[in-house]
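seq as requested:
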Amino acid sequence: MYKYDNYDQRIVDERVAQFREQTERYLAGELTEEQFLPLRLQNGLYVQRYAPMLRVAVPYGLMSSDQVRKLAHIARTYDKGYAHISTRTNVQFNWPELARVPDILEELASVQMHAIQTSGNCIRNTTTDQYAGVVDGELVDPRPYCEIIRQWSTFHPEFAFLPRKFKIAVNSHEDDDRAATLLHDVGIKIVRNKAGELGYAVYVGGGLGRTPIVASLVKPFLPEKHLLTYLDAILRVYNLNGRRDNKYKARIKILVKAMGVEAFAAKVDEEWQHLVDGPGTLTDEEINRIKGHFTPPTYEKLESENAELIAHLAENKAFANWYGRNVVKHKQPGYAIVTLTLKKLGTPPGDLTDKQLDVAADLADQYSFGEIRSTHEQNLVLADVKLSDLFDVWQKAKANGFATPNLGLLTDMICCPGGDFCALANAKSIPVAEALQEKFDDLDYLHDLGEIDLNISGCMNACGHHHIGHIGILGVDKKGEEFYQVSLGGSSSTDASVGKILGPSFARVDMPNVIEKILAVYVESRIEGERFIDTYRRVGHTPFKERVYAKSN
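C-alpha cells:
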C-alpha cells in the first residue's frame, strides 16, 4: 500500500496544527459558526443530531493493521467504543467531543491517516473494487490509478470549492462492478483498445440524491497517460458551468443533463486542448513509481486445493455455509479472499466495536500480510488468506461477530445511520434494518432467495444508496411521522439502473410484511437460477405492486 513520504506527512501534520488553532478560536468565541463551518468541513467534521461526526478518509478502502488498531484506540478513547463503515469505504465516529477532534486528527496523522476532503464541496475519497489486485477477471490492479487520482485531487487549488461534492470511482474488472462506477460524478473503467493499449472509458454525470442518474459515456477510450489532464478538463468545465444558485441542482449530473452528453463532451474536449500533453501528463516513470507501492505480497507456492480445507467443509456445515458465501476465489493458487461481514443480527449495518477493530487487525497480521480493506457494502475484507488458514479465520471471526454467512444476501444490507444520528434524515434507518434482520433471520431461506441487494436511506441524500438496491427503502416525513417508500429494480453493477418507486409509502411497523410480500412474488415467479433483479426485469413492476397493495379479504 502507499506509504507517505516526508512531504505527505508534513502536509497532514500542518493541517492538524492549523485545525487545532481554528477549533480553539471557535470555542473561545473568536470565530462564528458561519466562519467555522467551512473550516470543520474541510477536516471531515459534521454537526449531527446529537453530537459531531468525524469522517476519516480510507483511500480506496485499504488500511494497514496499525491503522486499524489506531481506529480501535480512537473508538475507545474519544468515542463510545465503536466506529461505522460508510459506503465510500471511509470510517466514521459518531460521538467525538469537538474540543478533542484535533487530538483525534493528530492520532490519525501518526499512522498516515486524516479526514481531509471527506466532506465539503470538493473531490471526495476515490473508491474501487474491494477485491482489487487479487481477483480473477481484472485487466490491471486499479489501486495505483486511484492513488494517482488521490494525489492529484488532494488540496487541488482549483477544486477546493466546487459547486457541490464530487465523487470518482475506478473499475478494472471486465465483467463485474463492485464499486458502483456508473453512479458516480466520474466513473473510470480501465480498458484496452484494439491495438492492446491501456486506457480508460470515462463516464460522467452519474449520481444519486434527489435526481438519481446513471452516468453517460463521454470518452470511449482515453490513453493511459492522459488521465489527469482529462479529469482536469472535466472539473474545469463543471467548476465554470455548474450551478451555484441551487444546491439541489448543482451536481455535475444536472449540468450534463442540461447540456446534453455530446455537447458536454465537446466542451470538455475543447478545454482539454489547453491541457493535453502538458505538465499533468502521466509519464511511464510516474505510473511505475506509484505501481511500486502495490506490488503483490510474498505468496507461498501452494496447490490450488487443500486437503485439510476439503475435510473441514465436509464435516462442518456451518463452516461450509460461511465458505460458500463469504469466501471468493483468489487469482493466486492456494489463497482466498475473505469478507468479514458486519451484518450480524442486532447490529446496525456497518458498525463495529473497538474490540472488533483490534481483532480485525490481529487477523490481518496473522493471515493477510497486515492489510485489511473496507468495502462499499460496509464490510471488511482480508484479501490474501491461505486456504489452509480459512477454518482458523472462520472460528476467530465467528467468535467476534464477523462470520454471518450472508454476503450478498438480503440481510447484507447497506444502511445509512439515519435519524438516529443524522440531522438531515427524515426517518430512522437502523430500526428498519433491525426489523428486517429479525424477520428474515433464517439462513436456509436467505440462501434459497440468493443474491438480493437491499439498501436503506433515511432521506433523499441517499447515503444508503436506496436508488440502486434491487430493493430500496427511503425514509420520508409525513406531517412529522416517519414513513418508508419502497423502490424495486435498482442495480449498481455493470447493468446499472435506478429503481422504480412501488407506490405510496408505508409505516415502519409494516415494512417487514411489505418486503415479505415482495419476496413471495419473486419466489413464485422466478425460474431456476434467476436472481431477484433478473426476475423483476422479466416479469415487470406490476405483479409486485399488485401483491403489496392488494386489499385483504
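The mean pLDDT is 96.
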